[in-house]
Amino acid sequence: MDYGKEGLDSTISWLKANKINYTGAGDDLDEARKPVIIKRKGIEFVFLAYNGRPPESFYAGQETAGTAYIDVRLIAEDIKKYKTKSNIVMVSLHWGIEHTLYPQASQIDLAHRIIDAGADCIIGHHPHWIQGIEIYKRKPIFYSLGNLLNGFYNKIEHNNFLAVLHYRGLKLRRIEIIPVGGKNSEMDFQPYLLTGQDADDYLKLIKKISERFPTHFVIKNNKGYIYIVDETNNLETRGRGKNP
Fold it and tell me: 3-state class of 187 per DSSP?
């Protein structure tokens, strides 16, 4: 939307031409709220996306193009519309404050309300830095994954992480955290996997940031592992000292 509807149309046309699924934007609000549904091993994964950052002129309306805006009522409506007993709903949120390591209290409250409405996972981004990982009612909340890919240099760049969710049927069993380089001034816009001490040091930072929720994870072989082991809000770790 930096280039108005023309820019949005160009982006969507390019995505369609390259067979890349998209959600969260469109010619009007109804289109922007349409999910992407991907089926894997008999399970449907439903992806919804919303934007909470200004300017408001970027938000889609009933007859205007733009992004689906973050409104808990609309998000709850969409979850109710698409959620079934046999699928998994992922909600992507463009939100938060740039260059901060912790989410705001209002974000935590919103994330909990979205999970309470039936979402199975929240994928956060916008701060450009990573933020904490919370497990709420056995559902993961990634408040910010970091940058991964962006088109500019930044003197206060941070690295990022990928999150791999391992399900057994509809039940999330563990989360794999993969640290990824994100400092464009060093890597010239080519992300790579962190290894060795760099990976472990960054995983320790993610672990420390996440402890306030609290979330615990095992660091092993340059990756982090979060194990979901009970039906409460608490997270425990297992497999310590063993290959996960």
Answer: helix
Residue 171 to residue 156: CA distance in whole angstroms: 38
pLDDT at 241: 35
Is residue 111 within 8 A of residue 143, CB to CB? The reply is yes
| 194-221: b (≥16 Cβ within 10 Å) or e | beeeebbebbebbbebbeebebebbbbe
Residues 52, 144, 175, CA angle at the centre, nearest 5°?
130
- The H or E element spanning position 206 is helix 196-210
Q: Which of 11, 40, 14, 39 is CA-nearest to residue 24?
A: 11
What DSSP string runs through 50-67?
EE-PSPGGGB--SSS-EE
Please state the pTM of the whole predicted model: 0.91
Long-range contacts of 109-113 (CB under 8 A, 24+ apart): 110/70, 110/72, 111/136, 111/141, 111/143, 112/136, 113/72, 113/76
Q: What is the predicted pLDDT for the residue at 230?
A: 57
